[in-house]
Inverse folding.
């Protein structure tokens, strides 16, 4: 038996239930209005907070009376989910439980006059509250239905051109509830939220790769007939005004951010988007934990948190050394209502499968970088050591034991480099240098061996033959030291762990201090030896740590 | 204290006196101005000058003349915000900020009663300081729970310090300050001023007034002129601004209160000593006739025989000033 459903079957309370549930944070409601601006192809958006009112103004398409009429509808939207981020037809009510009144001024290019849409949320809420009180008191009265409450409290009017002369839309949220305007009047809080969730530009002045990232992603998207949206966003909270950019700056990286890597997110059938990531040039975590790793963005709007993605990268060591974004532009990959993930679909599964490849790519890049920088450091250390040996071995020309030690040192140097060459973990630009160092080390080994041999046969002759040693020639041929950055020298045992980003508890720090004093410092004869021991230990722990990645 | 803040004579000053100068300077500087003042919810001054202004910093007390309190109704503040918001929506203003409280409270305390810190976003081009109460009497200002007493003029000093400290690379700072005060000068303050007037020109000025005038309102307004000139000149110069005092309008409003309207041009004039030079002839300014308003027109009025003439067109007065001739066009 079919049932007749009338307007009385949908209570007005539904608006309150929906908006309270979907937008508990006033910032999320604000995001909804900004999202509408982006969907309207706005290039510039101004957000202004004055006391207990908020204004969002854009230079987008604007709306005529027909579109404005449609905007009133609940849960129905003409927006194309494929192109627009907001498409559920509820966002316009996102401030329902936050404010008294919502006014939308809009003018489109196809109308002479602008239009004004006014939502009297206070009156709506008062009616609902009265209804609730009556129910609690047991007074029976006719329940207010959604249709009548909207009809009686929403007005659409044609206004004079002077009232709103520009093409675009201006939203005025008045009478913000005091619980909300406290948080919305804290500039930094609002700015930080917007920088993270809105598709604002990268900061050209503070982030050296800003332009490259914007251009590369735009080009890649263009190649796949997709659009990478960016807006200029200006925020004013009372008396403070700033243009907002994505929150990335050179300063967030130790030393500097490495040139970004880009990876298209695609499989055989679909192009999902582009991932960019800048690696910390120091082999360390990004210090700001809110920016570590990759953030998924659909058309620039954040989806979920960075930490949600770390599982695709395996251990977080490399993930935490990156700042990056996974820009999703695939039209059918739709964000869920609270913007914490995508809606369940086969496409979503495929996307996350592809993300494994992306993670592998960025892990590999980080791994290569780690190995290459270690290779650089080792080459430089070899050069320094060889110089030291060249400058000192002649002093030990009569001390066979010391000469043998030098030979062992020299062998260690070239064997280590040979090993790296064999494993292909020396960057291309330094391979020639590595071969030169091996050659020179072997030549030095030969000279030292010569001295040892002579010392065994005739000690007097050794001094006569010494000028034949090719030290000066070799020193000239030794390459220059290249690497400026390397891991910090540890000054105590605890330094090793902080240098390597290994988290240890305060209790553990105390224990390590004890071990340091009782054993490490005790087993070394002087400060130099102690530092050498610390350096060796740091190296070993780092290698042990890397092997586990 | 009576509320004399708006009446038809003020409109004449805005329209006939201030606006031509603002227009002239706007044409010279070729950019829209940042206004700082007390426009009241009627925003009459702003509506009059809106063609030349694109940003507003406004102050609005909740319940004049009662000291500010968070428990007072915010009606006037909200009304002012609404008016400015409408101007912004119409595209007449780029931005505005309303501070909830008396100007001296906000500027000297550093924040308004709603807790918003006072912040000047750029170089102010028009100050319209319409001081409702005595500039010569200290006012109580609550700072960190303690009551401090400040002269209203301290607010001007603080504003000029903020203006001085704003970094501006390309252009030098140039601005107009309109200042309206009561023509009231209490005897004790008068004595204090006389004692403090070390400057020989000021001393001469005081003795001249003493010789020429009996102890009546005419003497008071002349002394007040000297007093305000003295403090404002000091504040400007110590903040690296050369002041140019233009003719003063002295008029009685429709509530019978005598008011004095000052127009001062400030030109940044950095000096290694940290004190900008003063270029105007002090004697000429102090002994200059006042202007007044009669039959809707601004005309000179004579108080004593020794007074010298003044120009009753503000743009002409400015163009004939030493500041204009010597430094305005230089930077």
């Amino acid at each position: 038996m079919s049932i007749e459903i009338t307007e009385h079957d949908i209570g007005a309370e539904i608006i309150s239930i929906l908006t309270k549930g979907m937008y508990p944070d006033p910032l999320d409601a604000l995001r909804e209005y900004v999202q509408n601006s982006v969907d309207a192809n706005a290039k510039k958006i101004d957000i202004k907070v004055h006391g207990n009112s908020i204004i969002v103004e854009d230079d987008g398409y604007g709306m005529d009376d027909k579109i404005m009429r449609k905007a009133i509808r609940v849960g129905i939207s003409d927006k194309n989910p494929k192109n627009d981020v907001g498409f559920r037809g509820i966002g316009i009510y996102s401030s329902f439980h936050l404010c008294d009144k919502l006014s939308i001024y809009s003018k489109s290019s196809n109308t002479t006059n602008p239009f004004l849409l006014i939502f009297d949320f206070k009156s709506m809420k008062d009616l609902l509250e009265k209804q609730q009180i009556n129910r609690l008191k047991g007074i029976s009265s006719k329940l207010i239905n959604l249709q009548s409450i909207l009809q009686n409290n929403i007005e659409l009017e044609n206004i004079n051109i002077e009232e709103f002369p520009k093409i675009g839309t201006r939203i005025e949220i008045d009478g913000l509830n005091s619980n909300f305007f406290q948080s919305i009047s804290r500039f930094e809080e609002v700015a930080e939220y917007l920088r993270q969730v809105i598709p604002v530009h990268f900061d050209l002045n503070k982030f050296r790769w800003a332009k490259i990232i914007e251009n590369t992603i735009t080009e890649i998207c263009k190649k796949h007939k997709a659009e990478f949206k960016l807006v200029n966003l200006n925020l004013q909270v009372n008396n403070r005004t700033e243009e907002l950019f994505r929150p990335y700056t050179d300063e967030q990286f130790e030393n500097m951010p490495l040139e970004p890597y880009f990876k298209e997110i695609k499989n055989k059938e679909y192009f999902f988007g582009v991932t960019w990531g800048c690696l910390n040039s120091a082999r360390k975590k990004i210090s700001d934990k809110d920016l570590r790793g990759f953030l998924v963005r659909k058309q620039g709007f954040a989806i979920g948190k960075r930490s949600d993605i770390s599982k695709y990268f395996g251990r977080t060591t490399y993930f935490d050394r990156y700042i990056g974004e996974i820009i999703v532009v695939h039209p059918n990959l739709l964000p869920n209502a609270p913007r914490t993930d995508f809606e369940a679909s086969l496409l979503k599964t495929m996307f996350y499968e592809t993300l494994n490849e992306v993670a592998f790519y960025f892990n590999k890049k980080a791994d290569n970088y780690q190995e290459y920088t270690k290779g650089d450091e080792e080459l430089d250390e070899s050069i320094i050591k060889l110089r030291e040996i060249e400058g000192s071995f002649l002093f030990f020309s009569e001390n066979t034991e010391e000469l043998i030690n030098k030979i062992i040192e020299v062998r260690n140097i070239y064997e280590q480099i040979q090993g790296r060459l064999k494993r292909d973990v020396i960057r291309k630009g330094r391979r020639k240098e590595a071969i030169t160092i091996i050659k020179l080390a072997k030549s030095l080994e030969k000279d030292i061996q010569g001295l040892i041999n002579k010392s065994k046969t005739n000690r007097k002759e050794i001094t006569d033959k010494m000028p034949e040693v090719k030290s000066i020639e070799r020193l000239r041929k030794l390459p220059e030291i290249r690497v400026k950055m390397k891991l910090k020298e540890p000054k105590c045992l605890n330094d090793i762990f902080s240098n390597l980003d290994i988290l240890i508890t305060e209790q553990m720090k105390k224990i390590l201090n004890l071990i340091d004093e009782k054993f490490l410092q005790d087993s070394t004869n002087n400060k130099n030896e102690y530092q050498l021991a610390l350096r060796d230990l740091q190296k070993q722990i780092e290698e042990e740590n890397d092997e586990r990645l | 204290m009576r509320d004399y803040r708006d009446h038809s004579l003020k409109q004449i000053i805005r329209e006939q006196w201030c606006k031509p100068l603002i227009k002239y300077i706007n044409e010279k500087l070729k950019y829209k101005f940042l206004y700082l003042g007390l426009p009241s919810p009627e925003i009459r001054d702003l509506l009059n000058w809106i063609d030349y202004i694109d940003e507003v910093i406004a102050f609005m007390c909740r319940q004049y003349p009662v000291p500010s309190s968070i428990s007072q109704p915010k009606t006037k503040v909200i009304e002012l915000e609404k008016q400015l918001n409408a101007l912004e929506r119409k595209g007449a203003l780029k931005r505005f900020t309303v501070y909830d409280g008396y100007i001296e409270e906000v500027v000297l305390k550093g924040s308004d009663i709603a807790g918003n810190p006072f912040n000047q976003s750029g170089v102010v081009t028009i100050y319209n300081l319409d001081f409702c109460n005595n500039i010569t009497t200290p006012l109580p200002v609550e700072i960190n729970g303690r009551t401090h007493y400040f002269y209203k003029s301290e607010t001007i000093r603080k504003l000029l310090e903020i203006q001085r400290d704003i970094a501006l690379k390309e252009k030098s700072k140039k601005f107009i300050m309109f200042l309206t005060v009561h023509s009231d000068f209490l005897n004790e303050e008068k004595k204090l001023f006389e004692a403090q007037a070390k400057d020989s020109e000021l001393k001469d000025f005081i003795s001249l007034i003493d010789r020429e005038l009996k102890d009546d309102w005419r003497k008071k307004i002349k002394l007040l002129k000297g007093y305000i000139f003295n403090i404002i000149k000091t504040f400007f110069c110590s903040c690296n601004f050369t002041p140019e005092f233009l003719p003063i309008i002295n008029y009685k409003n429709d509530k019978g209160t005598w008011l004095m309207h000052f127009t001062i041009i400030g030109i940044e004039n950095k000096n290694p000593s940290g004190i900008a030079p003063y270029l105007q002839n002090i004697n000429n300014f102090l002994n200059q006739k006042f202007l007044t308003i009669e039959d809707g027109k601004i005309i000179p009025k004579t108080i004593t025989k020794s007074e010298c003439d003044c120009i009753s067109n503000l743009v002409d007065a400015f163009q004939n000033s030493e500041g204009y001739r010597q430094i305005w066009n230089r930077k």
